[in-house]
Specification:
Blueprint lengths: L4 H19 L18 H20 L1 H12 L5 H8 L5 H20 L6 E4 L1 E5 H23 L9 H10 L1 H7 L9 E6 L6 E4 L6 E6 H8 L11 E3 L1 H9 L25
Length: 272
């Protein structure tokens, strides 16, 4: 998949704008609504995005300080994202909202002036600027999905979903290592139907015995751990493909918590 860095940044900006528009008219009490992430309300999803946007900006602008701050943060334990959420639970919804808007704007501006190949520190191995932008897109999509599920509206699907699917495929080996399992030698063929056009996106050898086919959105929901594979329309063939979908994880950090079906039916908005 050839990199179109300008398009990637446009997709990142669009995904943030969609979430901002979703929450723009929400009353303060909506920010306390529980999301599918256990123990997290909408406010926690937004503070998480704003906080790690700021950390991504720090990685871009001051690598040494980033490493120092990241060490301090991870020193709080493997559940440090939960600790971050707790830190900002007394923040007023309007302030959280403005924080996310401002942090995302600063980050997009910084990304726009960067060489996409430059290496940056992060939580785990260093990554390229382009990979950092892709990770922020994936995080925005995933935590945004939690918000959309909580408020009961459909998550608009945009072209950025292809970059997230590509990240999901690229983290195949990472998911096994993260879970202490040997990385399989057998390749997996992934064939995904694009959400808004008559097009199929593919990865892996076309003669692979292990195969995953179906809607791109469903694949992204699984690799971001927002749905279980059995709760989607994905068709999975082969032992390796099946085991991968059980542990697939496109985000850094400790093995994520698996998700059940959302308690709120998308399409039933909880405020008007």
């Amino acid at each position: 998949m050839a990199l179109d860095y300008t398009a990637l940044l446009h997709d990142l900006e669009r995904e943030g704008d969609l979430l901002i528009n979703c929450l723009f008219s929400s009353p303060p009490q909506v920010w306390e609504t529980a999301t599918p992430a256990v123990g997290w309300a909408i406010r926690d999803q937004v503070s998480h995005l704003a906080f790690f946007d700021d950390f991504a900006l720090l990685a871009l602008t001051d690598a040494d300080r980033f490493r120092s701050e990241a060490a301090r943060l991870t020193g709080r334990g493997s559940d440090f994202p939960d600790r971050v959420a707790e830190d900002y639970r007394q923040m007023a919804p309007a302030d959280l909202f403005n924080w996310f808007i401002d942090s995302r704007s600063r980050l997009i501006t910084a990304f726009a002036g960067e060489d996409p190949r430059r290496r940056l520190p992060w939580f785990g191995p260093d990554m390229s600027v382009a990979s950092s932008a892709t990770a922020r897109l994936m995080e925005t999509w995933a935590h945004g999905q939690d918000v959309y599920d909580a408020v009961g509206v459909d998550h608009p699907v945009g072209p950025g979903i292809r970059s997230i699917a590509h990240l999901g495929v690229s983290t195949f080996a990472f998911a096994y290592r993260l879970n202490g399992r040997p990385v399989p030698d057998d390749p997996v063929r992934v064939e995904l139907n694009a959400p808004d056009r008559d097009e199929v996106w593919t990865w892996g050898p076309d003669d692979a015995a292990n195969r995953i086919t179906g809607p791109a959105r469903d694949f992204v929901l699984v690799v971001t751990q927002r749905r279980h594979a059995q709760d989607t329309e994905l068709i999975i063939h082969g032992e390796v493909a099946s085991s991968w979908m059980d542990i697939a994880q496109a985000f850094a950090g400790a093995p994520g918590r698996k998700r059940a079906r959302p308690a709120v039916t998308p399409g039933k908005k909880i405020w008007t």
